[in-house]
Design brief:
- The protein is an all-alpha fold and 71 residues long.
- The chain has a domain of 44 residues.
Amino acid sequence: MNSNLISQSDWGACDDLVSAYSAVINQKYESLLNLVETWDNILSDLGGDPTHIDWNSFHVLRLTREEDWSD
């Protein structure tokens, strides 16, 4: 089949799939927001849920640099 000859109805299935996928993702995202709010309340004494922290600048301690006094 030549790609120039694809009918409009062939793309309708893709549109339906994207719509269904979007609905599921939106529902899951709402569930996630509810869980984060719950954990924010539970962990409020510790600063809330750690998912709000930008972890891009976090550096893991290297074990090869461990000093004798760090026991």
